[in-house]
Amino acid sequence: MKLIAGLGNPGKKFEHTRHNIGFDIIDHICDAHNVTLTKTKFNALFEKTTLGNEDVVLVKPLTYMNLSGEAIAPLMNFYKIPLDQLLVVYDDLDLPVGRLRLRQTGGPGGHNGIKDIIAHLGSRDFKRVRVGIGRPDGQHKVIDYVLKKFDAEQQSQIDDVIDRAANASFAWCEKPFNQVMNDFNQ
User: Fold this and answer.
1) How far apart are CA 82 and CA 5, in angstroms?
2) What is the pLDDT of residues 12-39, one digit of tens each?
3) Model-wide pTM > 0.85
4) Domain 2-184 class?
5) Beta-bridge partners for 2
6) Domain ranges of the chain
7) Any residues with CB less than 8 A from the CB of 79 and at least 6 apart, and which?
């Protein structure tokens, strides 16, 4: 069994913001595969389903971004999902808007949601799909930037990267992650 978690912040005011791209990708996977997240437990909205031939738990933590590990770790324990079967999808300031980067492992890279997941799991050895949101110009604070929506000029890039990230996440249900990385890393 696998667990695919998209990171974001709960609540209407955060919908479709840069920091919530992980939620948007989980929603895209759900729409493409006729899945509705209906379960709420462990500070998460989730559903167990089958994608390809793989049992998968799709997750949107209901904690705020910086506490994502509080939702993911208990779900992994409940379903007895090994660390190597976790994929976390999230925004990345260090990648240009619309860029996609898959990794087998790594540090938090300044991302507090990833930092919290590492702290709760006691390991940084889990798979990631990093989605580029770019950095703000010198006039904007990072916190203000990540909590804003993409502008109209960037929206087509974002729609494309959401689709590619959802496809990469699904591909992992059918292929080894190394192959998925080769197919989707730019």
Assistant:
1) 14
2) 999 999 999 999 999 999 999 999 999 9
3) yes
4) alpha beta
5) 56
6) 2-184
7) 1, 3, 48, 57
